[in-house]
Amino acid sequence: xxxxxxxxxxxxxxxxxxxxxxxxxxxxxxxxxxxxxxxxxxxxxxxxxxxxxxxxxxxxxxxxxxxxxxxxxxxxxxxxxxxxxxxxxxxxxxxxxxxxxxxxxxxxxxxxxxxxxxxxxxxxxxxxxxxxxxxxxxxxxxxxxx
Amino acid sequence: xxxxxxxxxxxxxxxxxxxxxxxxxxxxxxxxxxxxxxxxxxxxxxxxxxxxxxxxxxxxxxxxxxxxxxxxxxxxxxxxxxxxxxxxxxxxxxxxxxxxxxxxxxxxxxxxxxxxxxxxxxxxxxxxxxxxxxxxxxxxxxxxxx
Lengths: 146, 146
What we know:
Chains A, B: This is LOB domain-containing protein. Chains A, B: Residues 7-108 form the LOB domain. The structure is a homodimer of 146-residue chains. By secondary structure, the first copy, chain A, is an all-alpha fold. Chain A has a domain at 1-82. Chain A contains five helices and no strands. The first copy, chain A, is rod-shaped, with a radius of gyration of 37 Å. At the A-B interface, helix 3, helix 4 and helix 5 of A face helix 3, helix 4 and helix 5 of B.
């Protein structure tokens, strides 16, 4: 834990300064997570990260650190596009899925129409069949009388 | 244009330094786009942006600047999640669309089975109908002879 003579946090260790009880980094960058701090320091700079954290309510600082670490990792992996590459990829995936969904809905509508048509044809044939059965019954009865 | 005594770029203007012909920012942050540079400077720091641009091949620097400006704008709009908010939103949208697509495919399969079943029933009724028509024709012929 930071300050009061304990192990300095990853930030104070890297920046070689005394880690006080008020250190804004200490709760989010413990000494054993040196790489995590090195990453955000490399991309955003410790001073900017400190300012950004101080502008955020304490209850949301852990989330802010997570998102900064995520962005920094993405920028180190892809120096040109950073996490914007993930956004582009996801936007393409959304467009592709929306197109596939529109096609699937069109197929469903076409099948529903075919089914409706098939059922109407079925009813027509069934009615004709019943009428024929009736006629046949009459003919049989007639042939019995003659 | 920067350097050679011309108007300094947005970066050199903000940082109050002489804009030379070698200025790494000048091609991407012209004097009239002060706000664009102020944003990346606020989030990443001019020194980090300069380092990041120098690590990227010249042909990809314009793309790198665009993505840095995008990330910086997102961070200023949402200091807790930055552009990670867009990633989360898009990931949720992808999950939702994948679920809707799975449902649509299941509906399509069910309709195809119903249609197949309906067609088989239709054929059965049609065959019975034709058989009946034949029987009726025979009966009529018989009644003509009797």
